[in-house]
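User: I'm curious whether this sequence folds into something compact or stays loose and floppy. Could you predict its structure so I can see for myself?
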Amino acid sequence: MATQQYGYRGEYAYDDEPGPRRRGLGRLPAGLRAPVEGRTWRELGYVLLSLPVAVVGFVWSVTMMSLGAGLLVTFIGVPVLAAALAGARGLGALERARARGLLGLEVGAPEPVRAGRAGPFGWMGATLKSGASWRHLLYTVLHFPWAVFSFSVATALWTTGWALFTYPLWQWVFPMYAGQAGMQLYGDEAHSVYLNNPFEIGLTSLVGLLVTLATPWIVRGLTTVDRLMIVGLLGPSRLVTRVVELESDRGIVVDTAAADLRRIERDLHDGAQARLVSLAMDLGLAKEKLSEDPQTAARMVDEAHGEVKTALQELRDLARGIHPAVLTDRGLDAALSSVASRCTVPVTVEVDLRERPAPAIEGIAYFTVSELLQNISKHSRATRATVDVWRTRDRLMLQVTDNGVGGAAVSAGSGLAGLTERLDAVDGILLVDSPVAGPTRITAELPWRRA
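Assistant: Here's the prediction. I'll summarize afterward.
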């Protein structure tokens, strides 16, 4: 299945020990192999490193902010505060790199500091006005208590679990070097309880095994909080991310419109325009022969009449490719039925809409289904196809299925890639489910906007 979706770019990517060893572990249930997986050790390493990094960040931020706030009565406080924010951004870059290497979390860098004017004063002003810089500073403050808690929990569970699990291997230390029968579980002036008989040793090892098996999942839960903090405080803000997406979508719309204009110009130049030029020449020749050879002139006029019909049909096809009149007059149901009638395989069309969407959304839906049906005609080798259109809350849903050979994918330069870009420009989504040997199911989602 090939799937194209757009959203936030924070993703987890792991590649735990590829090769024979990884394949061997893969046969075990997830709960049993978790303590020895590479991902678990990386997450534990992340938690252990978080404490010294958090201490450095907390000390830096609290010290510099306190010093800067105290010196605000003089001008010296301003550069100190700016330096505190700059240092916090540097620590944030270290944290993003650490999360990328140990947690597999990809988080983009926040928006850079853009000074309105050159020089140190411009930089200091831009740094103090930067929301991303203050989020980095907030991260260094909030991360410290969480790092202490995570470090304590992970260290305690990890050492306790493995110590109890391996107790049968080292319980001999107590009678040989400590002068007692085994690990002391309870003791007072009256009596003491030692773990020294086979049943107690085995039970201790079992408890240690359970703690060892549970620890990776607890550590994973702890690092989930770290992931949320990094994404929320050290990554780009949602507003900036949205602005970048809109800028990209605007470029796609402009490129698509330019490509459509070039296609229309090429079709006019190579089709109807060339045919009309030839028609004008033929009519000129017929006019010259009208008095000398009326029969030849009549035959030429008759041929010109056929050329006029052909040119009109080409212009109708071109107009239909720009925006079909049936779509404007009668809506998606009639327009899609018209497109389906020109497909080389039988197509069943079902449109369940109580009202019409906005013309722009309606047009994109029409051209999406039209191109998908063209792909079925050209590539699918299908014997039947269906088109379903319905509304779900604030989304217009389109689904085109066929029983062809499958194998369709959203690859660079393909028609599906172009459709994906066109849908993304209006916050739409294209989902492709096309296993080899079929069937193919392509679903498009568009935002519902009233006409």
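Summary: The first strand starts at residue 2 and ends at 4. The chain has three domains: 20-234, 239-322, 329-447.
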